[in-house]
Amino acid sequence: MDNDRKATALKQLQGHIWKDAYESGAVKGHVYDDVRPAMERWVADGIQVRIYSSGSVAAQKLLFKHSENGDMTKLLSGHYDTRIGGKMEAASYRRIAEEAMTKPNSILFLSDRIEECEAARAAGLMVVVSIRPGNADIPSDRLNAFESITSFDQLVLTPVDGEPTTKTAKTAADDHGSTADAGAKGSSDTA
């Protein structure tokens, strides 16, 4: 685990180890302050939010149930982990679309890992890179191929004609591309 390996068995073991710590209150799941209000807006607008993480589904549920911002599990419509496939494989994102019973191009995927973003785009998903403090730097030539945000407040999802659409609000700090318009159901592992 020190090497942040993405092996499913290690992630499942990690979930079991953390269970007692979360349930006792000794550990709280870190979620950026802008995430919960954004998720609440999206869910109120009928947009499903799903999580695809290298962490096991059990670990995801613990993190969101015992987050610093309270229990967020009711805001989530689904959880996916590496049992669906590797996060750098386009086939994994197509399987998520199948399980969500929607077309890949109706899913917005948010991540801080450019390799995951590239795989999701190859599968036909809409993609926005989430840039957060402490995350690894992304080479500008690869980052410029995507919309990017530094806060979920910049991401506006609104239903239009029964289909959700997405727009990223430009800020002075965001010079990585133009505003995106397309359908979205929501999938993120960068909360």
UniProtKB/TrEMBL annotation:
Keywords: Amino-acid biosynthesis, Hydrolase, Methionine biosynthesis. InterPro entries: Enolase-ppase_E1, HAD-like_sf, HAD-SF_hydro_IA, HAD_sf. Residues 159-191 are annotated as: Disordered. It comes from the Eukaryota. The keyword Amino-acid biosynthesis applies. One of its GO terms (molecular function) is magnesium ion binding. One of its GO terms (biological process) is L-methionine salvage from methylthioadenosine. It holds the Pfam family Hydrolase. The keyword NADP does not apply. This is Enolase-phosphatase E1. It comes from Salpingoeca rosetta (strain ATCC 50818 / BSB-021).
